[in-house]
Amino acid sequence: METFQYLSITWSFLFGTLVPAECDVPVPFFMSVYFFHILNPKEVLNGEKPMVEQRGPYVYRYTKDNITFHPNNTVSYREYRSYYFEPSMSVGNESDVVTIPNMLVLGAAVMLEKLPYAVRLMISATFKTFKEGPFLTKTVGELMWGYDSKLVEFLNKYLPGTLPSSGKFGLFAEFNNSNTGLFTVFTGRGDIRKVHKVDSWNGLTELNYWRTPQCNMINGTAGQMWPPFMTKESTLPFYSPDACRSLELVYQRSGEMRGIPLYRYVAPTTMFANGTVYAPNEGFCPCRQSGLLNVSSCRHNSPVFISHPHFFNADPVLLDFVQGLNPNEDEHGLFIDIHPLTGVPLNVSIRLQLNLYMKRVSGITETGKISEVVMPMIWFEESGYIDGPIVSTFHTNLVVLPAVMEYTQYGFIALGLAMIILGVLVHHRAKVKLPPRMEAGVCHGSTCMLLVAGDAELKML
User: Fold this and answer.
1) Strand pairing partners for 240?
2) Residue 20 has pLDDT above 60, yes or no
């Protein structure tokens, strides 16, 4: 999944004279995936508390392309994604074997629990026919990009459209070699406050997933850039097609990255709060514990929830149902570092967790005595940062040159003051200079006087 878009447009806007819009700017993007390996699947099936062990990260580098600019103050583009495994950055490899819940069985059981009992028995028999159990023990590569399943083949053949992918079933199968939809955003020409603001997504100016107009709004940018001249009171609103909603980050602190000043923005505690804790989020319900976003309405009605990793910033009761979770902000909080003058992201780390709501469903024997629980399956981090020549260009254009200009203007001010002072001194000196001496003699009879103008002398001759 992806919650921010490619920074290539950002650099084209910022350094338009340096980088052609069609070029693929070398900004590295990575997705790190962590699996929650279930240590006691048999005990879970008997109603005991799940025990999990985090495995990973399994790191993938991904690329994006097909970004096109138009001359009408908007940019329309489809962003295609392809993922490539990076063994040197990973802890383990794609051949590692892990055990996670089987979404095809446990997810379907919850979705179909209101059907007649006889139908549920038939569904259970179908699972047995295709040898689908409540848990999957597969390699990382199979779970990520798809594995062979007779049930999947059957559904794709006789019930097309039931599954999100027409090929193999995998957690990320529908995201590899796919696109995020058609975005149309403003360039900011004519009104810099609208730079990168989303005009529409897939032709829509609002969504239809949620229960209130406010929750269905497409707010903010597409996640590449925000309006310049940001303050600590500014927020970062953006639309995420993978979260099926608009999100908003808030200021946390100031800092710097390689000499470049930045503001760090993080997710507020209310981002995934339920409607009871935060009333504006009522439109995202039906809700469970606070800290969970129910995305079933945009994910084929499957009982899937998004949260922060390890249930960070969520209701503590969620930690009581699963052993092995240890949330903390440094490892599990998401953030975006922004250059406040330009609104350009310098460093991005988006961390989200995928959870499956599972429980015992009468008639579907594969669910056994499973206790009702929101079960963490995986969490992933998507990260990107400016590096290489872009850092130098950014630092030169937005740090060094402004500093040089600032010091230069002070130099010109000092030079101007010196010229003014010199002029005043010259003028004052000219004003106080004595006039030339003038002498005149006056005689009266035998007495003569010499008058000297300028020094008021009077001499008797």
Assistant:
1) 245
2) no
